[in-house]
Amino acid sequence: MNELMDILKELRPDVDFEKETALITDGILDSFDIVALVGELNDAFDIEIKPNNLVPENFNSAKAMMALIEKLQDE
Amino acid sequence: MQTSVLERLDHTAEVYADKVMFKDPDSSITFGEFDKLTKVIGTYLAGKAQPGDPIAVMSGRHIHTPACFLGAVRAGCFYAPMDGDMPQTRLNQILSVIKAPFMLVDQAHLEAAQALDFDGEIIVMEDIMGTEINEELIAQRAATLTCTSPLYVIFTSGSTGKPKGVITSHLSLMTYIDSVAKVLDINDTDIMGNQSPLDYIAAIRDIYFPISKGASTFIIPKNEFAVPTALFGTLNREKITALCWSVAGVELPAKLGAFEESKPEYLKKLCFSGSVMPCKYLKIWQQNLPDVLYVNQYGPTETTASCTYYVVTEQVEDDTVLPIGKPYDNYRIMLLNDDNTPTKDGEIGQICVSGPILALGYYGNKEVTEASFIQNPLNPNYRELIYKTGDLGRWAEDGNLMFHGRMDRQIKHLGHRIELGEIEDTALKIDGVKSCCALYYKEKATLYLFYTGDATSKDIVLYFRANMPAFMVPRKLINLEAMPALPNGKTDMQTLKGYFK
Lengths: 75, 501
Description:
Chain A has 75 residues and is mainly alpha-helical. In chain A, 56% of the residues lie in helices and 0% in strands.
């Protein structure tokens, strides 16, 4: 989780990732943030995020992102 | 010969009265309803504003925003669109240049508008919907327009730290729209999928293809671009046939693997512009949609969005370099050397443009206007202005123009035009930034800021987020003990580029 938080804070230091739960739905992260983020997460966690993973439910909060990462690592 | 875009709207509103003109996820508006709404807004504004006044418009991503634009035109005025998502500082800079007596906003942007440094009157669109149309007044105001009257002023990054307002006339807009519609074969069976913010130059096709050609436009919600499966779902649900997107927008679905799930079934035409297309992404589009017409466009806001086009007929490979092609109808291109002499065959020179598509200049900025729009140095006989783009080009043997980068420090990032000097000016306003240099790592599409001083990267990003549009916020911040310098004292940018990763 710490590694994820570091990546998120470097990406968008202006966002409170501990609290936000509607990062995509509210448009806090835009499409260009997502492209950058997907690349970094794939590298950092040795996973492959597929287009069908790219839904708001998986990226609306840091917690949801962590759940997705763990799920993909198990596969 | 039409005198204004209003004649086009009068025509399409009559022919397509009951057809959907604009649609967003929540609502839609027919040509007839749209036309009425522009007259309602126009009547109200005509009761307040003088013909020729600028009207600032700050309204969201929905079907009523284009009606606000055209409502201003119905009043004999021109519009200056503003993106309400931009920070206050930026919006205040725009207002200080345009000095509009009136700002038209939607209810959702009222609070944001009230917080700005604005001396004029704020008008809320929803509050004036009940205005009774005064056809006589509207006709009087339409008669004040000529085809060279300004239609809109769109703002773009300026190297001196203040945005520049590019003024476009009715004539220029109509000339461009007809030329690009001919290449793309846009007609009343087309449904456009709008990607660009509505205040931005790239949206003019999505707004004026309906007005001019009877096409329809669906306004795609911004956050769908982060969810590629939803994006393609929308393109199919709305049966979208034509896209005029930024290169960055076209790359997104290919980068995020959207084609692995589905593909846009109804798409026939895809036109892209704004920056150089990396062909490894275009290849993915071509492989999945081989029958689509792909068109590469090139050109600055000052020549009404674009000036050349290239129809991609070949199968591209990862390393294909696309030409920017040939001039649109009514555009003339010449290549000049630094001393204003014409380049020899096959040599690189500055791309200069002439024709009825040249902007009227930069609003309220005579000095920069006169430096950028000059008398054609090859024509001593009569007045003929050319615009010096600052871009370098070369005519290939097959007659196509090739793009060879910028002469200065202007870059294209995520489809937007940015002066690196403006990023540096902004960073230097932050306490704790002593010196800095902004550079662009093109291969990774990443904006770097190198700086000295004790500011943290968080301080800098927060300042940028509060004062500049999101696309101008540096992604990578590198704090240095000292700026590397060349013997002449200038910053050694090559050494800084060694930090790119």
